[in-house]
Amino acid sequence: MTQEEIITRPLRRLDPEDAQEALTRIQDVLHRQQLVSDLVHRQEAGDERAGLVESVVQRQHESEIKALLDDLHPADIAFILESLPKTERQAVWQLVGTEHDADVLLEVDDWVRESLIEAMDRQDLVAATETLDADELADLAPDLPPDVVAEVQKGLTEDERAQLIEAMGYPEDSVGAIMDFDMVRVREDTTLKAVLRYLRRMRELPDHTDQIFVVDRQGRLQGTLSLSRLLVGDLKSKVQDVLSPDYLSLSPLDSDADAARAFERYDLVSAPVVDDQGRLVGRVTISEVVDVIREDSEEQALSRAGMQEEDIFAPVGMALRNRAPWLFLNLCTAATAAFVASQFEDTVSHIVVLAFLMSIVAGIGGNSGNQTMTMIIRALAMGRITGHNVWQLVKREMTITVLVGLCGSVGAALFAWLISRSIPVALVMMAAMVCNMLVGTTIGVLVPMLRARFGKDPAMGSSVLLTFATDSLGFFIFLGLATLFLL
Amino acid sequence: MTQEEIITRPLRRLDPEDAQEALTRIQDVLHRQQLVSDLVHRQEAGDERAGLVESVVQRQHESEIKALLDDLHPADIAFILESLPKTERQAVWQLVGTEHDADVLLEVDDWVRESLIEAMDRQDLVAATETLDADELADLAPDLPPDVVAEVQKGLTEDERAQLIEAMGYPEDSVGAIMDFDMVRVREDTTLKAVLRYLRRMRELPDHTDQIFVVDRQGRLQGTLSLSRLLVGDLKSKVQDVLSPDYLSLSPLDSDADAARAFERYDLVSAPVVDDQGRLVGRVTISEVVDVIREDSEEQALSRAGMQEEDIFAPVGMALRNRAPWLFLNLCTAATAAFVASQFEDTVSHIVVLAFLMSIVAGIGGNSGNQTMTMIIRALAMGRITGHNVWQLVKREMTITVLVGLCGSVGAALFAWLISRSIPVALVMMAAMVCNMLVGTTIGVLVPMLRARFGKDPAMGSSVLLTFATDSLGFFIFLGLATLFLL
C-alpha cells in the first residue's frame, strides 16, 4: 500500500461481525435478484421489456454488492465467498475489486479456491498472481493452470525462482511448506545505528517482523535481534552484543505441528528456518502457525466423525465419497459384532431379555474406553508419556475403570433385575460390564501408544478399533457368561 | 533481564525436544534416588552409615537435577513439572531457581499450579509474586492464599491496584480476562522522531509490541501505529498521518473465542481493548490468543468424551468425579433404549435374529447423524449459517443421507439375509436403516441449530441426545416394522 492510499483512505475498523452482516445483506440482494429472474423467465420468451428490466435491476444489485464488498478486508471477503454456494460465490467473486484478487485467493480455504480460479480467465489470473511472493505463489501453484504458473514465474528474479522451486518441494505438513522468504537479515558486526539506517531505506518491513535475523559472512544464523531491543538499545552497540538471549530455529523438514507447539510454548511471533549447515533459508510467522493449530484441531474433529474437510455447499456426489467409506467401515464392524452375538442364538432364544441388555454392555464399554483413549492421546500429543510413567498411568486407568465399573454395574444390574426379575441375569450383567469396561480401557491405552511407538498418528482409526473391540467382545463376554451360568 | 546478564549468559537455542530429553533424565535420577531410598530403608533402623550415604547420594542427585533445570526456559520447566506425579513434581519444584518461580507459576496449567503453591512457604510466595504485573497477579490470585495477595498488593501503585481489581472482575471467557496493561501509548499530534525518543527512554518494550496505540487527549483510541511503519517512516511525519490503515479494537466483555477468530482472520499480533467510551483500557496479544485457541480445542475434545481437564496424575478420587457422571448418563440412555426394545419381547422371541440386527440399525444411525452434526457445528462456529441458507443445507444433508442410506442398507440387507435367510427380514432391515439414518440427520441438524438459536454452545450435550435418539428410535423403528410385517 502506498503512502497516498494510506492518507486518502479513511481508517477502517475491522470487525468480523460486520462481515457477517455483509454476508446476510449480500444473500438478501442475491435472493431479490433470483426473484426478479424467476419473474422475468415466467414471461413469454422474447419479451424485450422484461429482459431490459432484468438487466437494469441486475446492474443495480451488482453495484449494491460491490459497495458492500469494497468496505471489507480481503479476509472478510474470503469468509463471505466461503459461505456462499458455488454459483452465487462465483457471481460475487466477479464483483470483487481486482486489487483484492490475489489476497482473497490466498485467504480462502482450499476447497473454495478451486471454484474461484475456475471462474477467472487466464488474463485475470496472471494479473492477480504476478504480484505474489515466491512462497505465496508456491501455495497457489497446485490449483493454478500450469501455463499461468509458467507465465508468472517468468517475471520472477533468479532468486525468487529458486525459492519458488524450493517452497514447492517440501511435503505438506512440514515447516518448509509454511515458511516464507521475507526476512530482514543483518551482519553481526554492524552497529544498531547502521541497522536502523538500513531498515529506513526499505519501503516497508515484511508483515510480522518482530525480530531481524543476524547472520555471519556465510549466511549462517548467529541469533536474532528483536525490534524492541533495536528501538531501545544504544545506537553505538554492535548487533552481536544485543542479540536476544533465547532463540528458536527450525529446520524446513520439521513437522508443522511441532513448530506450532514450540511457538506456543515460547510465545513466539516469528522464527528463523535454517538448513542443515545452519544457513538461514526462511522464516515462519505466527499467522501461519495459528492456521496450523486451527486446521489440526478441525481435522481432528472431522476425522473423529470419519470425514475430511467438506464444503457445506460441495456437490452431493463429493459429499458421498467423503462420508460413505466411514459408514461402510462402521457397518462392517457392527455386522461382525452382530455375527459374534448370533453365535449365541440358542442362549438368547432361551432368555430373550439378554438381547436387550447386551447393547448396554457394549455401549458402556465403548464410552469408558473412549475416556481413557482421549486422555492418553492428549498426553501423547503433549509428550508427557515416557518409558518411566507408562506403568503408573496404566495402573491408574485400570483402577479408575474398576472403581467406576463397580459403581456403574450396580446400577446396570438393578436395571437388569427390573426387566428380567432374575438375580443370576443381574449378576452376569454386572460381571460382563466390568470386564468389558476393562477391555475398553486396555484398547484405549494400548492402541494409541502402539501407534505412537511406530511413528503413526495415535488418534487415527483408534476409535473404530475401540468400538469394534468393545462391541464384539462385549457381546461375547456377556452372552458367553450367560451361556455358562444361566442355561 | 539486565544488560549484564545478556552479555554473560551464552545464547540459548530453544528446543522442545531438549525439554523432553531433560524430562527423561530427571525421571531417571528420581528413579535412582527411589532405589537408594528403598535400599536404605531395608537396613535396620538407626544404621547411621546408611542414612549418611542416602543423604550424600540425595544431594548429588539434587545437584544433577538442578543442573538440568538451569539450562531450561521457564516454559520448559513448566512442561516438566506438568509431566511428573505430584510428590515428584513438588520435589523438583524445590530445585527450580527462585528467579524462575514467578514465570513458571504463570506458565503451568491450572491443575498443576495448585500443587506448586502448596509446596511453597509464605515468604517464597511473596518473593515470587511481588514482581508480577497487575494482570499476571490477577491470573494467579484465585490460587494464592488471601494474605499473600494482600501483602503483595501493598507494593503496587495506585494505578496497578486499580488494574488488578479490574482484571479480577471480568468473567472467565472474556477479553477482559486475557488482556494485559503493558501498552505503549502516544498522542496523535507527536512526530515519529519524538515517539522514537520516547521509546528509547523506556528500558524495554512490553513483549509482543508490534504496534503502539494512538490516543487523543481524553485517552480515546484513535488508531494504531506499527513498529515497522515507525522504523521506516519519515521522522518529521506526525503520528496521525502514518496510522495503520486498518485496526481492530476489542471490548473487555467480548468473548475470548470471538477475539481469537478476529486475530486469526486478520493475522494480528496484538489488539487494543477499549471501554464503551472508546478509551484505551488494555491490550490483548497473540500469545494469549494462541492459548485460547488451544484450550478451546482441547476442551472440545475432552467434552466429547464427557470429561473436563484432568491431570494424568490426579488422584483417583478426582478422576472418578470427573468421569463417572458421563458414564452414568450414558448408562441411563442405553437403559432407556433397552427398555424401548424390551417392549417388543414377543417379536424378538419369535424371530431371535432380530436381536442381533437391531444394534446395527442403531449404530449406523448414530454414525451418520454424527457426520451431519459435526458439519453443522463447524459451520455454526464459523458463522456460515444464516437464515438464507438453512433450508438449502437441510435439503442437502437429507439428500446425502438418503443416498448413502440406500447404498449402505443394501449391504446391511445382504448381511441380514445371510444370517436370517429371510427376505422379509432383509427388507425390514433396509427400511429401518434408512429411516434411522434420517432420524440421525434430523437430530444432527436440529439440535445444534436450536441450541445456537437460544445462545447456547451448539456442541455441548448434542452427542448424548443424538445417541439417545438413534438408539431408542432405531430399536423402535426396526422392531416396530418387524412386528408389523414379519409376525
Automatic annotation (TrEMBL), chains A, B:
A Pfam entry, by short name: CBS
Keywords, in A-Z order: CBS domain, Cell membrane, Magnesium, Membrane, Metal-binding, Transmembrane, Transmembrane helix, Transport
Main location: membrane
Matching SMART domains: CBS (SM00116), MgtE_N (SM00924)
Compartments (UniProt record): Cell membrane; Membrane
Entry GO MF terms: magnesium ion transmembrane transporter activity; metal ion binding
InterPro entries to which the protein is assigned, alphabetical: CBS_dom, CBS_dom_sf, Mg_transptr_MgtE_intracell_dom, MgtE_N_sf, MgtE_transporter, SLC41_membr_dom, SLC41_membr_dom_sf
Entry-linked PROSITE patterns: CBS
Transmembrane segments annotated in the record for this chain: 326-344, 350-368, 400-419, 425-450, 462-486
Lipid bilayer topology: Multi-pass membrane protein
Subunit and interaction comment: Homodimer.
Database matches in PANTHER family: MAGNESIUM TRANSPORTER MGTE
Descriptive protein name: Magnesium transporter MgtE
Origin species: Corticimicrobacter populi
